[in-house]
């Protein structure tokens, strides 16, 4: 497996996950390493599986292309709390926006504006050394981007 691409690894992971029947399937950024055509085919497969099995898929993603016709419901989580939850047909912004991406973008931009308004300068605490400072498991900005 170490010689195959990330997309091929992702396909194997998806196939292994689908070997067992499901009523609820939780997917987190499952299509991130997959090419556009494979992504569309996979989403169509999931849609058919849900219809045939009567199953539910909870799909967390930052990639919104083509989800307008795929999703039946949308949940928007802001700062760890459920901000919005409704049927796609009941989202008023979808009636005037060209796609789901532009709707989500407007929500995120308004969220950013709220955070800037609420943000106050807090006193900076003095830095105290920690026994974990030299640990390889210590969090750093760079580690946030690695998989």
TrEMBL record:
InterPro entries: P-loop_NTPase (IPR027417). The keyword Isomerase does not apply. It comes from the Eukaryota. Residues 120-147 are annotated as: Disordered. Keywords: ATP-binding, Nucleotide-binding. SUPFAM superfamilies: P-loop containing nucleoside triphosphate hydrolases (SSF52540). GO terms for molecular function: ATP binding. PANTHER family: SKFA PEPTIDE EXPORT ATP-BINDING PROTEIN SKFE. This is ABC transporter I family member 19-like. It comes from Raphanus sativus (Radish).
């Amino acid at each position: 497996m170490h010689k195959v691409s990330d997309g091929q690894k992702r396909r194997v992971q998806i196939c292994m996950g689908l070997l067992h029947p499901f009523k609820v399937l939780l997917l987190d950024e499952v299509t991130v390493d997959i090419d556009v055509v494979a992504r569309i085919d996979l989403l169509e497969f999931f849609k058919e599986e849900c219809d045939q099995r009567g199953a539910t898929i909870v799909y967390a993603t930052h990639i919104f292309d083509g989800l307008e016709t795929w999703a039946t419901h949308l949940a928007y989580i802001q700062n760890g709390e459920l901000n919005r939850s409704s049927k796609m047909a009941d989202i008023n912004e979808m009636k005037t926006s060209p796609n789901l991406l532009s709707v989500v973008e407007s929500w995120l931009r308004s969220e950013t504006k709220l955070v800037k308004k609420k943000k106050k300068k807090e006193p900076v605490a003095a830095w105290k050394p920690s026994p974990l400072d030299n640990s390889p498991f210590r969090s750093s900005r760079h580690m946030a981007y690695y998989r």
